[in-house]
TrEMBL record:
Organism for this UniProt entry: Microvirga alba
UniProt superkingdom: Bacteria
Sequence segments annotated as region (Disordered): 66-88
Compositionally biased residues, Low complexity: 67-78
Protein name per its UniProtKB record: Conjugal transfer protein TraD
InterPro entries referenced in this protein's UniProt entry, alphabetically: Conjugal_tfr_TraD_a-type
Length: 88
């Protein structure tokens, strides 16, 4: 019985984490983005070391978006626009 309870708790935690990550994708305006594109972008940012200027810049941008209303982006700044991100 204890094992089932632990398994349920772990599943609920995993589900919550996935929902939170999905919310980040939605907030970034990337729900309709190509999955391979998203994976490539995530793999690229995974290589950025914490504490670097690039990491801190991205973190600051993310904190601003998460703590305030959704920023209005022009069409040239749209997350779905295929403009290369500087530093990559």
């Amino acid at each position: 019985m204890q094992r089932e309870t632990t398994s349920v708790v772990e599943r609920k935690k995993d589900t919550r984490e996935k929902i939170i990550l999905g919310g980040l994708v939605q907030k970034a305006g990337l729900l309709n983005a190509n999955r391979a594109f998203l994976m490539g972008a995530l793999l690229m940012i995974a290589k950025i070391s914490p504490g670097t200027e690039q990491y801190e810049s991205l973190k600051e941008l993310g904190q601003k978006v998460l703590s305030g209303p959704k920023p209005s982006l022009s069409s040239s700044e749209s997350p779905n626009h295929e403009t290369p991100v500087s530093g990559f």
